[in-house]
């Protein structure tokens, strides 16, 4: 481009930004910029107001103590430790590295049940040494402060506590699973009429030597009122597994007759 052509382009760009004759900036006068700015300020303020009002109305319909809808999750499901990808536990007894991840997961999980972490009498209380009925701690929606939680010692799990056997039975080919009921606010499980039907060659360790979940640990009042709640546990120890064979376990109902989410746990090369 010639110098004259470049100069004209430069002047054109400059006029686009600021036209001194029409007194326009980017093609608009000061009044035009003021009007459009006021319009968009009001427009976006209106949108923000609608959004905030919608959130406030939604919050007014919610209960701060429990979910609004939980009828589809009753009764409680069951979960277990250690965590296993695809619900498959596969390891070799002569290779510690193959079960190290399971042992580590169990240790991390069971630490919250150490006695020294439940010494605060403002948060925890003893709920007896034998199974009892539910522990009622007031109305669910009453603002009476946080509820205390029943202490649950890992020692109740005996052979699956990890205290004497730090590998939770994996080293000797008799692995442990630790199961618990999922938390559901105000859920009260029902006791069974009998304990028949347990699978043979399996040891169960639970509260006061019982293979079940004691009722005095229920109901659960939610994170706001029950922040230190500890679910009761049951240890399951497989004492007679056949090596190099897949064992599938499908849970249908708990000892307290609550429906459980079906799970399959293949144990191979144990």
UniProtKB/TrEMBL annotation:
Record localization: Cell membrane; Membrane
Bilayer topology annotation: Single-pass type II membrane protein
What are its GO biological-process terms?
intracellular potassium ion homeostasis; intracellular sodium ion homeostasis; potassium ion import across plasma membrane; sodium ion export across plasma membrane
Specify whether Translocase is a keyword of the entry. no
Q: Which Gene3D superfamilies match?
A: 1.20.5.170, Na, k-atpase alpha subunit
GO molecular function terms attached to this record: ATPase activator activity
| Entry annotated with the keyword Protein transport | no
Annotated transmembrane regions: 38-62
Name any one Pfam family assigned in the record: Na_K-ATPase
Q: Which family does it belong to?
A: Belongs to the X(+)/potassium ATPases subunit beta family.
Q: Which function does this protein serve?
A: This is the non-catalytic component of the active enzyme, which catalyzes the hydrolysis of ATP coupled with the exchange of Na(+) and K(+) ions across the plasma membrane.
Protein name (record):
Sodium/potassium-transporting ATPase subunit beta
Q: Which organism is it from?
A: Xiphophorus maculatus
């Amino acid at each position: 481009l010639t110098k004259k052509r470049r100069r004209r382009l430069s002047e054109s760009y400059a006029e686009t930004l600021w036209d001194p004759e029409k007194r326009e900036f980017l093609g608009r006068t000061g009044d035009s910029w003021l009007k459009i700015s006021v319009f968009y300020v009001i427009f976006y303020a209106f949108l923000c107001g609608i959004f905030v009002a919608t959130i406030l109305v939604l919050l007014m319909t919610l209960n701060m103590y429990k979910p609004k809808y939980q009828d589809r999750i009753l009764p409680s499901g069951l979960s277990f430790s250690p965590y296993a990808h695809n619900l498959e536990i596969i390891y070799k007894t002569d290779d510690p590295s193959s079960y190290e991840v399971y042992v580590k997961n169990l240790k991390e999980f069971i630490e919250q049940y150490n006695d020294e972490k439940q010494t605060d009498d403002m948060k925890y209380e003893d709920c007896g040494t034998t199974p009892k009925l539910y522990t009622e701690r007031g109305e669910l929606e009453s603002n009476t402060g946080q509820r205390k939680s029943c202490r649950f010692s890992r020692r109740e799990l005996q052979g699956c506590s990890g205290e004497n056997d730090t590998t939770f039975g994996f080293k000797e080919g008799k692995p442990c699973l630790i199961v618990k009921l999922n938390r559901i606010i105000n859920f009260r499980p029902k006791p069974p009429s009998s304990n028949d039907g347990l699978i043979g060659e399996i040891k169960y360790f639970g509260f006061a030597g019982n293979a079940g979940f004691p009722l005095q640990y229920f109901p659960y009042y939610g994170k706001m009122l029950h922040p230190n709640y500890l679910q009761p546990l049951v240890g399951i120890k497989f004492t007679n597994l056949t090596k190099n064979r897949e064992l599938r376990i499908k849970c249908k109902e708990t000892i307290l007759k609550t429906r459980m989410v079906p799970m399959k746990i293949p144990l191979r090369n144990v």
